[in-house]
Amino acid sequence: MCEQDHVRGNGYPDGLGVRQDSGMERVRDVSELPKAHLHLHFTGSMRPGTVLELADKYGVRLPETLSEALTSGEPPRLRATDERGWFRFQRLYDAARSCIREAEDIRRLVREAAEEDVKDGSGWLEIQVDPTSYAPRLGGLIPTLEIILDAVESAARETGLGMRVLVAANRMRHPLDARTLARLAVRYADRGVVGFGLSNDERRGMARDFDRAFAIAREGGLLSAPHGGELAGPSSVRDCLDDLHATRIGHGVRAADDPRLMKRLAERGVTCEVCPASNVALGVYDKPEDVPLRTLYEAGVPLALGADDPLLFGSRLADQYELARRHHAFTDEELAELARHSIRGSAAPEDVRQKLLSGVDDWLAS
Fold first, then answer.
1. How far apart are CA 303 and CA 255, in angstroms?
2. Among 126, 230, 273, 322, which one carries the catalytic annotation?
3. Which of 59, 121, 221, 258 is the most exposed place for a label (fewest CB within 10 A)?
4. 197 with 169: CB under 8 angstroms?
């Protein structure tokens, strides 16, 4: 059987290919491998068809680049290694976000994200959102977060997927805004918020400017999961560790440039939420084989593969595991270990972790 491209639930050809055989030996289906998904952005989780429907419903004129991509099924061409490129990426993201207008749109987005994750074998999803982005249309920060948490609770009940929320501040906003979000996140820790993050262009806004916000979150029992080591180098990962006391690092791939930093991550057990397809789409690395998955893995750094923004990058969670298999020669045993990393790095309750870990063992034994 030859390698062939396939179309996943996001509506884009994944461009990675699915290897169904390795020589004479059939490989296991990665969509059946139990795993946790720790790096999925709220707007970026949407299905292309959903964006088109909502844009039509509300009369939103999408940028031509985005509308053509969503209609054709080919992800938009992106490269964000300079500020102009990042601006273009952010413009498309903001356009998609502008199609979310009502509580029902939030419920649909969350339900569909859960359905896609279940298809990909995820048993636990921590979806990342900045409620500030939706608050003006939904009555403010508190009503917005409550709508999101209610939607997550409903989607979890309907799909059987364990699902929680990571509230993320925006580096492009004032650090005082981040403190407001941190207090809000802590307030809803008993309603499904499990962590606090920091997103957007890491070349803007020093990590230490947000240290108080992260202290508030940690004191409230939330895990710390800022972005670092994607668009900026190893120093941004160190800043997340030193200034924000990160439990996990969003991306973190540039740590591979510094052996001592990798050793530090491994010794501390800090999980890097690596998003291979996203790294290539944004120009962090030129080709899938350039993403330092193998380097990080062999250095003992815990890795949780994530899809980041499937809407714009054209691939979902299982595709990241296929990329590791095809472009980095990860064996099924190694893919299973990546799945274990994701589960152990999650905020899932212990009984859920044990169930998923047991499922990983069953997948290998199948």
1. 12
2. 230
3. 59
4. yes
